[in-house]
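Exercise 7.
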Amino acid sequence: MADTVEIPGPLGPLQGEALAVEGAQHALVIIPGSGPTNRDGSTPSAGLQSNAYRLLAEGLAEAGIASIRIDKRGLFGSEGAIADPNDVTVRAYADDATAWVDRARDLAPCVWLAGHSEGGLVALVAAQEPPEGLCGLILLATPGRPVGRLMIEQISRNPGAAPYLDELTGIISDIEAGTPRPTAQISTPLQPLFFEGVRDYMMDLFSWNPAQLAESWPGPVLIVQGGADSQVRAEDAQALAQAMPQADQLDLPRATHMLKPDQPGDPLATYRDADIPLDPALVPGIAAFLARHDP
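Solution. The predicted structure, written as tokens, is:
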């Protein structure tokens, strides 16, 4: 049975949901992706109801693996941890993930940081100073390039964005250089992506190179990549794998960014429909990987 658990945060508690398994040797700390994504893997404010992290935790529990899936500081159950949810850095998220590793040691002797998308970057940063009990990383649909460069590629695949690509590239280059443009100098269709409240976080986020971080992690790692992922591509997984030659890779040819099988004709179905199950190879693949690294 899932239990709500808390650890101290900067101003108030950080909250997550633990699934304990009797006799478990492994526990995953599941770190959410970008934006207001909750511990279940859904973004209610955007009408996205995937529940991918909840399904992952439940599937792992059936395989004898414990987990804690967390709410990021400033959001949902962790809302009181900071005053402004946009006043964050990747390092701050990583510090929280490190603290969750310590809590997860109550569930199993071997703890893994399992980051999805941007959460994989957070896991890589946290692993730069590995906490006691951290056995390794599970990188789920994780960028292998700086996020600003990936963002340009993602938007460029939308035909409607063609008139704004030069401007978009310039805006991101300015943010990478630490000199973001005032909102008044940004075209109206692009303003929601770069509103003032998130610029400081974007400057920090865009400064990290996941592949460079990966080079300094010597321990076990599983890279999971979906073949139908329209956000993080196969070249990202390849970049991470090249940086970590010790890595195992789990390819899911039909899986979207939400780790569920693509639904032909409805590219957003796996983001919106909580009833679509995870890719059938995901949980067995993780379980088999962990079995090779029993403590």
